[in-house]
Specification:
Layout: H1 3-9, E1 17-22, H2 28-41, E2 46-50, H3 55-64, H4 70-74, E3 78-82, H5 92-106, E4 112-116, H6 119-123, H7 127-142, E5 146-151, H8 160-167, E6 170-179, E7 182-191, E8 197-207, E9 211-214, H9 217-220
Parallel strand pairs: 1-5, 1-6, 2-3, 2-4, 4-5
Antiparallel strand pairs: 6-7, 7-8, 8-9
Amino acid sequence: MNEELDRRLGGIPFPALILIEGDHGTGKSVMAAQFIYGLLSSGKSGYVITTEQSTYGYLRKMREVKVDLIPFFLRGKLGVAPLNTSRFSWNSSLAKRLLYVILDFIKRVRDFLLIDSLTVISTFSRREDLMEFLRGLRVAVTEGKGIIITVHPNAFPEDFGTRVKSEVDVYFRTSSASIGNRRLKVIEKIKTSEGTFGSDSVSFDVDPSLGIKVVPLTLSRA
C-alpha cells in the first residue's frame, strides 16, 4: 500500500462494501487498484471484474502508473475477468442477467472483488434489480469478503444513488481540482464504516514514474 496515502486516508476496513464515485479521469480506477494492491500485499486474494479493459489492458494500464498487479496475477492471487460491455445491446433484461452473473461469481471469490466499473450495468438496471444486487453484496460482506465498486456520477437511477451511499460501509468521491497553478485529483472520504461523515480529503497526482503521489496543499499551491 502507498504508506502516505494509507496514513492520510486512515486505511480501509475489511471486510467492507466500498463505493468510489468519480468522473472519467479523476483517478478512481487507479485508487481502487491501489486498495487491492494493499489487500494482495497483506496476503489476500481475489478478482477484478473490468468492464472497460481486457485482462492484459487492465494489468498494463495499472503497471504504467506503478500499481503493478502482474506478480500477483502470475502467482494466482489475482484474477481479472473482463466484461466487454461495449459489445452488448443494452436493455434492463440484460442488465439484470449480468447483475446475477456477478453475484454468482462472487461465490468463487476468496477474499475480495473489485468491479471497475458498474456504471453501464447500473444505468440500464431497474431499481428492484439493483436492490437485490445490493442485498447480495451485503451478504458477501457478512461472509468476510471485501467488495469495491467504482461508478461514474449519476450511474444509479433517480434517487437510488442516495440509498446505495447509505448502504455502503465506505464512500469515496474523486474529482479534479485546480489548486494554485496545479491541476490535481482529490479523493474525499464522505463516509466510513465507523459512521464518520465529512470532507476528509486528500489531493494527489498520478505520476507515471512514481504512481499515486500525495500532494500536500502547501506544496500544491507553490
